[in-house]
Amino acid sequence: MPIVLNAFPLKVPEVELDVLRIPYEKETLDDLRSSYTTTHCFRRQGDHILIFSRDGTFPVSDGTTETIKFKDNKNIFCFLVKDGLIRHLTGLGRNPLGFNPIELVSTKPEDNILALILGDAYPFKICAKYSIDTRFVQGHPCLVIDCTTRYILKENALFFLNAGFDLINRYVVTEVDDGYKKLLGSVSSKKGETLHITRLDGQVIQANAKDVYLEANRTNFDDYILHTHSAQKETIIEHIRQSVSTFNGGENKKNRIDMLKKYIQSKAIPLIDGTCIEIEDSPNIQNDCRQMQKPIFVFNDNVEADWVEKGLTQNGPYTKRTFDKNDPSICVICAQRDKGRVEQFVRKLLKGISNTKYFRNGLEGKFMLGTSRVEVFATASDSVDSYKNAIETAIRKKVDDGSRWDLALVQVRQSFKKLKVTENPYYIGKSLFFLHQVPVQDFTIELLAQSDYSLGYSLNNMALACYAKMGGVPWLLKASPTLSHELVIGIGSANIGQERSGDKQRIMGITTVFSGDGNYIVSNSSKAVVPEAYSQALTTLLEETIEKIQKRMNWQKGDTIRLIFHAQVKKFNQEEIEAVRAVINKYREYQIEYAFLKISENHSLQMFDSATAKEQKGSLAPIRGRTYQLSKNEILIYLIGQRELRQDTDGHPRGVILDIHKDSTFKDIKYLSVQLYNFASHSWRSYFPNPMPVTITYSDLIARNLGWLNQLPGWSDSVMIGKIRQSQWFL
């Protein structure tokens, strides 16, 4: 059965083209584009500007003229293809945005999904959006076309003001000449139709409401639906979610992509020199795709299984015989008004739900913990002080007994997410418990409204995380032994800050996983630092980890140590390379090799598999573990596939692209891709495969948790050095 990508090979013509090369200066490039954009196009290439002409003449006399062949300069050819497409679309009166990629929002009324739900007069729209880009696939330039949706506002801020919608603290934008919306700031006050807007730098400006637009973000969208359809809000939002997901399903996505591809094929769209763009249909890549084998997991008594749910239920967790918190002591923090329902919920968590498929025995039975000793501490209200009082009472009770809680279950509310960190009981509660080395599992009061059927799945995942937070190891991931000792370092990040301002910080999180005795073990070393301190933190972490496990695993002089880095970065910079080299210089008794892997889900590449065309759920979606090598150092991997979609409306799954950095000394892409695939099944937050490997998801969680906690006055990461460090506290 054919498998195709949304990448259409470009025919590279046997054409030569004169180009003028001049030194690069930003002002020069801006002036040239402003004055000569209809007759010329301009490309920055390193320290030069390349000027391409429609008629062979150039707007400047200095510079060096050279003749290029498209066959020998395929990157330049791809640039001119996109330039030609933009000129064509602009000439039709369309408004293409951007370049890498080009984005085109449909103006057809029938392509507004929201009109079918709330009517065409509604001020928001959800429109079909196409993206067009070029990339090389197995050395050949291709045009990549994708289709998804975009939220759009068709009314200015005055419309919302007249509708009685509160604009205070909402971000507004202004429309600029190229069609983009430029962020102005947030509305701090209003007087009549005049808005006072606080910019990101703190300066306050004034603007008439008719001249600015609300930002078309999800918060403004949801809040306006609440304003117009208060009682029906949740039903409408769910209807919209299903409609958008259905639109993004494989069959509709592929049909729309093919429609735009056929249009480009039929129109003989010219480049700047008149050469026509020619694209071919996407070839069948079925014979070049690989299917990965299921990962193997290790449970109690080293029993192996390829399904974690079955392996855990039949054999018990890996640390069944060594877990030291049997009959655990658990405290529950909840609101006084919700105490009865919370007690019922906690009993279901611990004892199970009899009529569920996977959670009949609860946390205690599934992980063989014995009988929990539970005590509930109620808060008088949802205030920070009430939570503090309840938590301090719980902690004091154990301190007086000379012991410590093994786990804290803290009930919160969805509304807490909108609070500042210093006013948020969720973070205050975590910090207080962490200070006393007690891991925390929170749950929202809204979760209790689920039916037992749905709740069984939620509690199954929650129990898994609780066991890991208490220091248990549910299972290990089996590794195929090699001649090398292996360390895998995950690098994640989180943007921390309540407001979009200069105070917002990017925090880096780091986790380590190492292979020993044939199994992958998640290390307890974890850090979160600001980017400026990241390089030094990475070097220190590597040294600490190597020192710790070289003795444990009995490394010998001359052994090969393999360091593999996973990161979701735009690109690795020289800091990471230098950090690794600094470590290598300190451990010359070993042979150290390394690989830097960029893992990206932000790309436009899609795979369509006709073998699933008749499936009701995930039509045309590839199955999990399907891979296709794009180049010597790039491979497309599906970590989530057709079977992992929950419902018919879940849309088309997106694969990740693994890209090995050119400076890596270990470049076995098939080995590295299998390892990455296996790590996507190794999270102890859920029994389901993840769309990213545990190396990334754990690192992101560490960065997010420690980043927010560091916003609290008096908090210190040194708290995490204690016993709690031995657990997966951040899950």
Low-confidence stretches: none
Total beta strands: 31
Backbone structural class? alpha+beta
Strand order of the largest sheet: 15-29-30-31-27-26-23-24-25-22-16-17
Tell me the CATH topology of the domain at 479-600 and 659-726. Answer: Nucleotidyltransferase, domain 5
How many helices? The count is 17
- For the record, what CATH class of the domain at 479-600 and 659-726 applies? Alpha Beta
Mean pLDDT over all positions: 89
Task: Say which CATH homologous superfamily of the domain at 479-600 and 659-726 is assigned.
Answer: Ribonuclease H-like superfamily/Ribonuclease H
Instruction: Estimate percent helicity.
Output: 25-40%
Task: Assign an overall shape.
Answer: globular
Percent in strands: 25-35%
Largest sheet: 12 strands, mixed
Topology, element by element:
Elements: E1 3-5, E2 7-9, E3 16-23, H1 26-36, E4 40-45, E5 48-53, E6 64-69, H2 74-91, E7 102-105, H3 115-118, E8 124-137, E9 140-153, H4 157-162, E10 171-175, E11 181-191, E12 194-198, E13 204-208, E14 213-214, H5 218-228, H6 233-247, H7 250-266, E15 289-291, E16 297-298, E17 304-305, H8 308-315, E18 329-335, H9 339-351, H10 362-366, E19 373-379, H11 384-401, E20 407-412, H12 425-435, E21 440-444, H13 452-469, E22 476-478, E23 484-496, E24 505-516, E25 519-529, H14 531-552, E26 560-567, H15 574-586, E27 591-600, E28 607-609, E29 626-631, E30 634-637, E31 656-660, H16 669-679, H17 694-709
Parallel strand pairs: 18-19, 18-20, 20-21, 23-26, 26-27
Antiparallel strand pairs: 1-28, 2-9, 3-5, 3-6, 4-5, 7-8, 8-9, 10-11, 10-14, 11-12, 12-13, 15-29, 16-17, 16-22, 22-25, 23-24, 24-25, 27-31, 29-30, 30-31
